[in-house]
Design brief:
This protein is an alpha/beta fold. About 40% of the residues lie in helices and about 25% in strands. The chain has 10 helices and 15 strands. It starts with a helix and ends in an 11-residue tail after the last helix.
Length: about 300
């Protein structure tokens, strides 16, 4: 089988425009030469791809099926060339990114414009959701995930750290006292994220603690848990980046600071197990990782 990439590109344009003459003109071909190229492509694949009439063209059932593959072939070739060249002007195409809602809004979305300024031939779709989605099925190029890395076939790259901490509002501490040891949490109103009611930590003595917490509020929304803590409702376990501004203002205070929340959480970029990493995907991972590592709240270094 001898498939010509230019003929595949020409077929895609014929299918898109619905006209052989217009598509051929874009390639500097006459209608006759265009028809001959399409016929040669049909001979190579062994089936009729296009129905021709005197007024228009339409795709056959096989043509419809081949069109999706043709677009992927051309996209893969462009990605391969861009990956080899890996220069700003060569990086192009659509980049589909998924990220957790709060994290994406605070630490991904603000950098999109700068990345597009650096790579003007790239367009970006940013999908913000706290649901775990199938990135292969959804066609996501890069998924930002927070947490402990789970075993999967996806390729993972660590971008930054995401240390967690125990916090509460000063008003709550004034009314209920401050826990001095992990076991003291069992006597406090603890705010849970969904059904995460076991909090684990390691102490300065390297001993491990596993505390069953209870409380009168739980939510599937990380932001809702933060808001509940700010009102003085109870004690929360939060990522440092989520509460950095509230710690700075004094609206929340850290508790049990000598203890480290386990397991360790990080920020990861996940992509499909495909062998080829398009240059735009690699470039955005490099770019975002550099930005995130400059943020103090995304480091396990504890502030003085």
């Amino acid at each position: 089988m001898n498939l010509d990439l230019k003929s595949i590109e020409l077929f895609i344009r014929v299918a898109t425009l619905g006209a052989i003459g217009k598509a051929g003109a874009e390639f500097g071909l006459s209608p006759t030469a265009t028809t001959q190229r399409i016929q040669a492509l049909e001979a190579a694949v062994g089936t009729q791809l296009i129905h021709r009439t005197t007024r228009a063209v339409s795709l056959s059932a096989d043509g419809e099926a081949f069109l999706d593959h043709a677009r992927k072939i051309i996209a893969d070739v462009e990605d391969a060339l861009a990956d080899i060249q890996y220069e700003p002007q060569s990086i192009r195409g659509e980049l589909r990114i998924a990220a957790p809602a709060s994290f994406g809004r605070i630490h991904v979305a603000p950098y999109i414009a700068e990345f597009i300024d650096l790579h003007p031939n790239v367009s970006i779709q940013l999908h913000l959701t706290d649901s775990v989605i199938d990135i292969v099925e959804q066609g996501i190029d890069l998924a930002i995930r927070l947490g402990a890395l789970q075993s999967s076939t996806l390729k993972a790259r660590k971008l930054a750290e995401s240390p967690r901490m125990i916090v509460a509002a000063p008003d709550y501490i004034a009314r209920h006292g401050q826990p001095e040891f992990p076991e003291d949490l069992q006597d406090h109103n603890c705010l849970a994220r969904e059904d995460m009611r076991t909090w684990k930590m390691t102490g300065p003595d390297a001993d491990d603690y596993e505390i069953k917490i209870s409380g009168n509020f739980a939510s599937n929304s990380a932001e809702a848990v933060t808001e509940a803590a700010l009102t003085g409702l109870g004690i929360a376990r939060k990522c440092r980046w989520e509460v950095a501004e509230h710690l700075k203002s004094g609206a929340l205070v850290p508790l049990l600071s000598d203890y480290t929340i386990t397991p360790e959480w990080n920020v990861y970029a996940l992509r499909s197990p495909s062998r080829l990493t398009p240059a735009r995907v690699r470039a955005f991972g490099d770019f975002l990782g550099q930005k995130l590592r400059s943020i103090p709240a995304l480091s396990n270094h504890k502030p003085d």
